[in-house]
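Fold this sequence, please.
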Amino acid sequence: MKKINGIMMQYFEWYLECNQNLWNNLSNEAEKLSNLGITALWLPPAYKGIGGKDEVGYGVYDVYDLGEFDQKGTIKTKYGSKEEYINCIKTLKQNGIEAYADIVLNHKMGADMLQTIPASKVDWGNHNLEIANQKNVKVATKFTFPGRKNKYSDFEWNWTHFDGIDYDENSKEHAIFKFKDKTWGNEVDEEFGNYDYLMGADLDFENPEVIEECIKWGKWYVETTNIDGFRLDAVKHISSNFYKNWIKIIREQTKQQLFTVGEYWSGDISKLHKYITETEGEISLFDVPLHYNLSRASKDEQFDLSQIFERTLVKENPCKAVTFVDNHDTQPGQALESFVEEWFKPAAYSIILLRNAGYPCVFYGDFYGIPHDNVKPLESLKTLIKLRKEKAYGEQHDYLDNPNIIGWTLEGDELHIKSGLAVTISNAGDGEKRMYIGKSFAGEKFIDSLANCNEEITIDNEGYGNFKVKAKSTSVWINC
């Protein structure tokens, strides 16, 4: 489970060039990441996908093939072999870092055989609306995994295990086809009428065989890899009841806590609350509303910084909030592109890393850069991660009272020497905020660890300091 002042890191970005060697590269980086303050890593999907050696991981083919079998033109996945993956997880544990597996159960792609079945075409804008009479379609729904030869599981998938697909080989038509006698699942997002269908051959989570196989696989996966937790992909497209029961059963069968965070992609906080209620608090969620606030703040000079936490999960249900600045879906060129502008990144990371609430997740593309789009590593990010590890403790005092300049302080605690800090953020001109940081610092001097302000600040006898900030920048003040 997550540690005090823990930091998760998403250890990949969409265009990552790793030459099927990410697991080995990460094993070599583990000690450095641990020393810096990273306590958990969200690893990319580790199973064979339709794209073979170039598959990022979301075009899932065989969840039992972790880079062990000659399938889709390769033995290794994009990231390496099964042995390298398991060794990587072992190395992470030896360095005090938990490993979270990216779980993609919504759909399958790259079937081994086609099947002809009756199906009805539905409207792209309203999946509940059938727009053509039922007809026979030829679809990629038969998965036999010949390269694996029934090792680990002899389960073969056929059209009855799915409820729809988006391509008909007969007509060469790209459309959503709902299969005969099938209905879209309940307890999914209501966008497009019903957002059960997303892509590929869509799993039918009302089919008892599908449920049983997913549970068997989950237990196998945990016991095989010794993973510490899960990142669940696309949960708004899957019955909340399925995942609530699935995670409970996997935890019971493996006798592990298995920290779990779901990707429910919506800026509507009420939908996140609803999902947490439906899953009985078994699953945390990424704070998508906060991400959108950070993105808007970076692009709109009129954004009111005092409202940065309004309608966010970290404010309304902090124990279930995994906060983040960006990820592989929001980076340039991706479907959910909403990349936080470079000038605001230090502020955004201060907001998720240097406060008491939430479980922060750092993005690989911000830490290492994204060469594909000439995005450079964020220079201050390592400093901010280290500050969370060493300084971000104690009672918090918020000064979110101005549309252009906000701040907060942490008093520190006795367990961490010279802990405590003050943060000031501006989206307009130079300024300062008089903030309380604790009488224990009376007479002590503070400096800006990000070096945006050069002067020292002295704390007065009442425990207050006048903490400065330069125009459109961030300062993090620490006891020198």
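Residues 108-203 form a domain with the Elongation Factor Tu (Ef-tu); domain 3 fold (CATH 2.40.30.140). The two ends are 33 Å apart (CA to CA).
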